[in-house]
Structure formats: C-alpha cells, structure tokens
C-alpha cells in the first residue's frame, strides 16, 4: 500500500477494519481575556484497532502536523444569514502544532502527556468567570446585569448576545439562553471514543471504589410520614375539656350529666 501524503491524510478516513490508521482526538475550549474561544486539540494516529495497536511506520508526527495545518485551512462552517449577508466560520492564521512527548521528556518547554492531562483537567473547572470576570448562572432578565460587577467589555458582549437572541432569524442559536457564556453553547471538552477512557467508565470506577472503601451502614429505621385528612374540629374529649375550661358552671353540669 502506498503511504498517504498530508493531503490524503486530512481527508475523512473510511471507518473500516482494513483502515491502516485511526485518527483519535480530544479538544478543550478556553475563554480568552477578550472573550473569544480558544481551542486546543490533541490529535493522535493509532493503529487500525485503536490506541493499543501501533500505527504504520509512515504515520510520523511530521506527517500528522502537515495534515493538521492543511485541514485547518480547508475547514469552514456556514453560519446564519443576518441583514441579508451570509456568514461563515473558519480557523484563523494562528495555528500552532507541537509534538506531545511521553512523560520521560521533561527538559525545556517540551509538551508531555502529563502536561496535557493537567491542562485538560484545568479547563474542566474553568469558565467565563475565570477568564473574563463574567457570570456563572444563566440570565433570566437582562436587567440582572445591573446588580453584577462586570468588566464593561464582558457586559457589552452579554448585552449583544441578548439583543441578537431576540431576532427571529437568529432564534435557533439560543443566544439568550447562553448569553452568560458570551453566546458560546459548546462543551468545554469533546473527544473521540477511542482517544481515552469514557465518562461512563470513570463513573463506574468511582462507584466501585466507594463500595470497597465505604464501611457498611447499620440497619436503618423506615419512617412513613404519610398524612390523610380525618375531619375538622375537636375530638369529643377535647370538646368536653374546652367546655370545662371556658363554659361556666351551668355548662359544666350539662356536660357532666350528658357524660
């Protein structure tokens, strides 16, 4: 088989057991201080059966880097039409590709797999409030901004997203729902299934760990707190007591005789 060049590698590969390589990736989104989204992608060439099989010898980091840069120049997404003008989205010119080394390489500014894991973990808890000083909860009304101490640049972006969200031709973007995120409604992280473990596997591992390390609980007492309507007024005994307290001697004799 003839090894592919960068142009062939950046084309979609057929999902077939006979494919020589499998492209796996993970991506994290980062808010910049100016409020725009900055993407970091970790892309890997695996063998045909996934990450536990080596790729062919021709699948070098240089070849992958060339394919990434070429694919970035070709990629674009058609955006909405606003004011009679069509918009599209594409990558900018600032595309930086670097080789990720194993954790054994620690010298200088080498990017290692350990640094990549730490970087992805950092963005799992980072949102607009950390980068631009904006909001955490969603906005129900735009007037809620009056009670928030926000940088003017961030507040202007929120108001712009809120205003655009009222347009009929942009309602499908749900900009008001995501105005507190400056209009970005994507997840901080996405990945292919074969890149690493899945969230379901992590949840199962945590549950198993807790079962092994949590001491057994003593038997619990089942308490049923179910109430049903029985009637209005006092019980007969409480009615007699009320008469004895406030009804006077004549009423007391009547109650006694009736008893």
As a whole number of angstroms, the C-alpha radius of gyration is 33 Å
SS summary, helix count: 8
Q: Uncertain runs with pLDDT below 50, 5 residues or more?
A: 248-259
Measured distance between first and last alpha carbons: 108 Å
- How much is the average pLDDT? 77
Count of folded domains: 3
Helix content: 25-40%
Give the helices and strands as they follow along the chain.
HEEHEEEEHHHEHHH
Q: Give the structural class.
A: alpha+beta
Number of strands: 7
- Summarize the biggest pleated sheet: 3 strands, antiparallel
The general outline is: flat
Spatial strand arrangement across the major sheet:
2-1-7
Task: Report the sheet-strand fraction.
Answer: 15-25%
What's the topology here?
Elements: H1 6-9, E1 22-31, E2 37-46, H2 61-74, E3 76-82, E4 85-90, E5 100-101, E6 111-112, H3 113-123, H4 128-131, H5 152-164, E7 189-191, H6 199-213, H7 236-246, H8 248-258
Parallel strand pairs: 5-6
Antiparallel strand pairs: 1-2, 1-7, 3-4
Helix pairs in contact: 7-8
